[in-house]
Specification:
The protein is an alpha/beta fold. The chain has two domains: 196 residues, FAD/NAD(P)-binding domain, CATH 3.50.50; 103 residues, FAD/NAD(P)-binding domain (3-Layer(bba) Sandwich), CATH 3.50.50. The protein has seven helices and 16 strands. A hairpin with a 5-residue loop joins strand 12 and strand 13. Helix 1 packs parallel to helix 7. The longest helix is centred in the last third of the chain and has 21 residues. The chain starts with a strand and ends in an 8-residue tail after the last helix. The mean pLDDT is 88.
């Protein structure tokens, strides 16, 4: 079995950016993608999400991003990714469902249902979409209405005429409320009061927000999303919901869920027909567990004060789309950094003989 110089797990924005830069550096590699077609997590977004609604798709290196039109994002972005893979002849293999990564005497072994790959280095670009976070509240299993997480949100029309409780204080919750409030009755609950940004989001402000995420990663803590430190802003398509007062009527979290609604901490009851959990995601890194990369503080510590992509505990491993690079712009930049990290490791590591 040949030993590759690098393997990239995931063919979303971060994975494609990494592959592009690895190819430019002349580093033999393969990209293993769990989906059966290009597009990453964008393939699974709801039909009502258009390119005008998304928060922006940063251009992949050497390419122009799709325009901000009314085209469905789950069509436009996958088409963009597909054309990019072909244009740059990226070595993507799919579908490959990676189960775990182990160490065999200094060589990384990637195990999947579809086969086994061996490599000197690895770039993890699995993102968060496949690992939604759903908190548990007493009684949620007794609820007779519908419950959805962002990952399986069916679009606003599914909720027309229903009383909907949106749970979560991030950008997705704000977006869902913006789409639902004009067509049906909605409530909003969060654990903490939302933090609204009223000033312009300048490049300096963005850098300061990313720096806060970097600090956590540098300390080996589990990363928080970049959005959690940037604050929330309303886009033009959410102004109607704001006029209806939805964002001003936010309530603290309920105490328990009952078959036809929720019981608030003060004992009062609110009937709801559906609960939409916009409670975010966690890094999809369970397959890396055999490598013992986590620190005692729960996260994977990265080099250069959290600004790099190299795992401090194992310099063979690069993480992109993790922590400060968990955004479209950050993912692109991290791809270049990761490719350089791979090159640096290979330059100083002894070359193991191929096993045939």
């Amino acid at each position: 079995m040949d030993i590759l110089d690098s393997i990239v797990i995931g063919a979303g924005q971060a994975g494609l950016s990494t592959s592009y830069h690895l190819r430019r550096l002349g580093i033999p590699h393969a990209v293993l993608d769990a989906d059966d077609a290009p597009g990453g997590a964008w393939r699974h977004r709801w039909d009502a999400l258009t390119m005008q609604d998304v928060h922006g798709v940063a251009e992949l290196p050497g390419a122009v991003p799709p325009p901000r039109t009314t085209e469905r994002a789950n069509r436009a972005v996958p088409a963009y990714f597909s054309a990019y893979e072909r244009a740059h002849d990226l070595p993507v293999l799919r579908p490959v469902h990676v189960d775990r990564v182990t160490d065999d005497d200094g060589i990384l072994v990637v195990h999947a249902a579809e086969g086994t790959w061996r490599s000197r280095t690895l770039v993890n670009a699995t993102g968060t979409w496949t690992h939604p976070f759903l908190p548990h509240y007493p009684g949620m299993e007794t609820f007779l209405g519908e419950q959805f997480h962002t990952v399986d949100y069916p679009g606003p029309e599914r909720f027309r005429g229903k009383r909907v409780l949106v749970v979560g204080g991030g950008a997705s919750a704000v977006q869902f409320l913006g789409a639902l409030a004009p067509i049906t009755d909605v409530l909003w609950a969060t654990r903490r009061p939302p933090v609204w940004r009223t000033d312009d989001f300048t490049p300096e402000a963005g850098a300061a927000a990313v720096a806060l995420v970097e600090q956590r990663v540098a300390q080996g803590l589990a990363p928080q999303s970049v959005v959690s430190v940037t604050g929330l802003m309303l886009r033009p398509q959410e102004q109607e919901a704001a006029r209806l007062g939805v964002y001003d009527a936010r309530r603290p979290m309920f105490q328990r869920i009952e078959p036809d609604g929720v019981r608030w901490a003060d004992g009062s009851f609110e009937h709801v027909d559906a609960i939409l959990w916009a409670t975010g995601f966690r890094p999809a890194i369970a397959h890396l567990a055999p490598l013992h990369l986590r620190s005692e503080r729960g996260g994977i510590q990265l080099d250069h004060g959290g600004r790099g992509t190299t795992a401090v505990k194992d310099p063979r491993i690069q993480l992109v789309g993790y922590g400060p690079s968990a955004s479209t712009i950050g993912a692109n930049r991290a791809g270049r950094t990761a490719a350089r990290g791979v090159r640096q490791f290979l330059a100083r590591a002894p070359i193991a003989a191929d096993v045939r």
